[in-house]
Amino acid sequence: MPSFSIEAPGEANPMTPDTVYRALLSAASNDQHQIQTGTQQLKNWETTPGFFSTVQSFYIDLSLPYNVRYLTSILLKQAVDKYWRKASDNAIGRDEKNLIRQRALESLLNEPEDTIALHTSIFVARIVRIEYPLD
To answer: Among residues 16, 115, 125, 126, which one has the least CA distance to residue 59?
Structure first.
């Protein structure tokens, strides 16, 4: 009997820290199929409240693999352009923005990897450019 698998859409795969981490691992893997599956799942969750603060919690965890943390730094940088402004479709909520802001500068100052620190500095600069002196 042939074997097959069914990939569930984002709505069927609820967002939890564990499922987000598994999707990040897949998206950061070397296997093309896993990259596609993980990337698509992450895209499905982008508009879910709490997604980017969850991603940031993995970025902050220095014990995680470099490739996962690097991917999270890119996701956060892109999120500012797409979802940070109040007028954006599916904008990041005020409470989540506050949490992300609180952790952003400290994580930048404590980041040991230069490439991740570079993406984080761009992420922080974009927030500043959008919010100050307005918010």
So the answer is: 115
Cα–Cα distance, 67 to 73 (Å, whole number): 10
CA distance 57 to 53: 6
Q: What does the domain layout of the chain look like in residue ranges? A: 14-131
| Residue type, position 105, single letter | L
Contacts with 35 (C-beta within 8 Å, 6 or more apart), sequence order? 26, 27, 28, 29
| pLDDT, tens digit (0-9, with 9 covering 90-100), for 38-79 | 999 999 999 999 999 999 999 999 999 999 999 999 999 999
Q: How many residues does the chain have?
A: 135
What are 120's two structure tokens? Answer: 């984080």
Dist. CA 54–CA 41, nearest whole Å: 14
The C-alpha atoms of residue 96 and residue 56 are separated, in whole angstroms, by 11
Answer whether 79's CB lies under 8 Å from 128's CB: no
Confidence label for 132 from pLDDT (cuts 50, 70 and 90):
confident
